[in-house]
Amino acid sequence: TEIVQELGRRAGIPMKIQVTPWTRAYQAAMDSADTCVYSTVRLPEREALFKWVGPISVNKWTLFAKSDFSKRLDTLDDARSYRIGGVSMDAKAMYLKSLGFTNFDLVGDDNLNLTKLMAGRIDLWISSLYKSKDLAAQIGVKNIKPVLVVREVEYHLACNLKTSDATITALNQTLQTLRKEGFVKAVSDRYADRL
């Protein structure tokens, strides 16, 4: 969010940022002119659905379990027999589905996955390494642990196709400036240090 806010400010493009459940935010970016959603992974099946700005950040998709989870996961295949919580229309769940995973419990709001994990209704939760700690802290969950990094990904700002090319160009050029100045790295490093 800090990167996106600075991006808009420096590019001179007014932005109104709203925190919305992922499924609703994603759909709004597909349906509404001058609307974007972040942080969005740029997947081949999404390429033609949006105009893209980025990458704005890098993160690690990670499987989490309760702290007392005693099994060792060395590879993603080791997770196939477990119930995995994820978010509908989210790239992480889509990725696992593309690899043949079927034992899912998908919701519209990621907060529900932590509640289900704590209640034993799912065994594992797929989330982003950086986001998960903040999400857990917001709802008072402390006894989770990362058990397997699934993959490292780049996140983008995915904008409605009716967003002007001039806006997309300005945002991408400004992002390159922020990157050259070290702003993007400084923000990313500050959050990585909190883990």
Give the SSE map.
Blueprint: H1 2-11, H2 22-31, E1 36-41, E2 51-66, E3 84-87, H3 91-98, E4 104-107, H4 111-119, E5 124-128, H5 129-138, E6 144-159, H6 165-181, H7 183-192
Parallel strand pairs: 3-4, 3-5
Antiparallel strand pairs: 1-6, 2-5, 2-6
Helix pairs in contact: 1-6
| Helix proportion | 25-40%
Report on the biggest sheet: 6 strands, mixed
- N-to-C SSE string, H for helix and E for strand: HHEEEHEHEHEHH
Backbone CA Rg: 17 Å
The number of distinct β-strands equals: 6
Strand content: 25-35%
Number of helices: 7
* Inertia-based shape: globular
As residue ranges, the low-confidence spans are none
Q: Overall pLDDT, averaged?
A: 93
Q: Which class of secondary structure composition applies to the elements?
A: alpha/beta
Beginning-to-end CA distance, first to last residue: 18 Å
Main sheet: strand order? 1-6-2-5-3-4
Task: Give a short overview.
It contains 7 helices and 6 strands, in the order H-H-E-E-E-H-E-H-E-H-E-H-H. By secondary structure, the protein is an alpha/beta fold. It has a 6-stranded mixed beta sheet, with helices on both faces.
Q: What does this protein look like?
A:
The chain contains 7 helices and 6 strands. By secondary structure, it is of the alpha/beta class. Strands 1-6-2-5-3-4 form a 6-stranded mixed sheet, sandwiched between helices. Helix 1 crosses helix 6. The two termini are 18 Å apart. 31% of the residues are buried.
